[in-house]
Write a structure and sequence with these properties.
Bound molecules: zinc ion
Order of helices and strands: HHHHHEHEEEEEEEEEEHEEEEH
Helix content: 10-25%
Mean pLDDT: 84
CATH architecture of the largest domain: Sandwich
CATH superfamily of the largest domain: Urease metallochaperone UreE, N-terminal domain
CATH topology of the largest domain: HSP40/DNAj peptide-binding domain
Radius of gyration: 35 Å
Number of strands: 15
Largest sheet: 4 strands, mixed
Strand order of the largest sheet: 10-11-15-14
Number of helices: 8
Strand content: 25-35%
Number of domains: 3
Oligomer: single chain
Shape: elongated
CATH class of the largest domain: Mainly Beta
């Protein structure tokens, strides 16, 4: 059995990047053009490396290979089609490989992707917004393709957006297809830029976009709205709109994940006698009963009265912590009462 890792000279833990790098190196080393005195052997090695690469660079094939060591289903390297090999090479060398031209391949450009830039917006939301998953309209400044722009067909690629070159070499017909760098693959170029547009034919526009705030979202979380970013020059794929949520603090509630914390102040009589208290929550008022003789820092847990989880079904809790408020000012009568009871054992700590 062939060991693809061995062939490429990488370890089993190699990343896709390592695998690509290793393959590039071997492809250069064994490219038949570079081995005029040893063509047959070089070609064989080149194909072997290509076979190994085609398996290890494919997630599914790699998994299968790692598990079962199966190589039979990928065919024999010697039967490989050269066009396929070189088309694959086109892809691999396109991402940042300068020596591509060493082979005399015709491509000297990376694949140019005509894509608009992403837009980032910060949205401030409060706890009510994230409780209900409210919809908000936001104003954004976007670069849009000017409607008055005029295009003409790209004469470098005749409107196809790609440039295909075919070279005949001793190992076969070699075809490379690359994105046309002149029109960035769009097949058309700007013929007339309106006065108010920039070099790429883009103008700044204000747009209002409705955003559904995700239920229960956390501070700093992001949401990507596909293709709502800046337009691409020549009308390619627009960038994305990235929304970052800033959850504003609430004066009554502190948030820890989906739980809400509330501090409930009680007067001395309330704490001693017990009472009913009304609490204003995010969803309305709720009544809670305070038993007589309650202490400070007593936690009352109101199940499912916190924030909804992202799934929208489960809820966190509302945790009420009591604190008995000691007044700083009291009147004469009250003072008398406390002086009278100074040594009353009922006021002292007792388990
Ligand atoms: Zn073109």
């Amino acid at each position: 059995m062939k060991d693809f890792y061995d062939i490429l000279g990488v370890g089993k833990d190699a990343t896709l990047n390592d695998i690509k790098k290793a393959y590039r190196k071997l492809a250069i080393k064994y490219h038949p053009d570079k081995n005029p005195n040893n063509k047959k052997e070089a070609e064989k090695k080149f194909k072997e490396a290509t076979e190994a690469y085609s398996v290890l660079s494919d997630k599914n094939k790699k998994r299968e290979y790692d598990q079962y060591g199966n190589t039979s289903s990928y065919g024999d390297a010697s039967s490989m089609n050269f066009d396929d090999i070189f088309n694959n090479l086109g892809d691999i060398f396109n991402d940042g490989f300068d020596s591509y031209t060493e082979f005399g391949f015709n491509s000297n450009k990376k694949n140019i992707k005509n894509r608009g830039t992403n837009l980032k917006v910060l949205i401030k939301v409060n706890l009510e917004d994230i409780y209900y998953g409210k919809e908000k309209t936001i104003k954004i400044k976007k670069m849009k393709l000017s409607p008055n722009i005029k295009f003409k067909t790209c004469d470098k690629c005749n409107g196809t957006g790609v440039i295909t070159k075919i070279t005949n070499t001793f190992i076969g017909r070699m075809q490379t297809t690359n994105t046309c760098n002149y029109c960035k693959g769009q097949g058309k170029i700007i013929y007339n830029i309106p006065n108010n547009a920039n070099y790429d034919g883009l103008i700044e526009k204000i747009e209002y976009i409705k955003v559904q705030i995700p239920i229960g979202i956390n501070d700093g979380e992001m949401l990507k709205i596909i293709k709502q970013g800046n337009d691409a020059p020549y009308g390619g794929r627009p960038g994305d709109l990235i929304i970052i949520f800033k959850v504003l603090p609430n004066k009554n509630f502190k948030r820890k994940k989906q739980n809400l914390y509330y501090r409930l102040y009680l007067s001395i009589p309330e704490a001693i006698l017990g009472c009913k208290k009304e609490l204003k929550t995010l969803t309305g008022k709720i009544k809670i009963t305070i038993n007589k003789g309650i202490q400070s820092e007593k936690k009352i847990i109101l199940k499912n009265k916190g924030l909804p989880y992202r799934n929208g079904y489960n809820y966190g809790d509302l945790i009420v912590t009591t604190r008995v408020w000691i007044p700083k000012k009291i009147n004469k009568d009250q003072k008398k009462f406390f002086i009278k009871n100074k040594n009353n054992k009922n006021f002292y700590y007792k388990l």
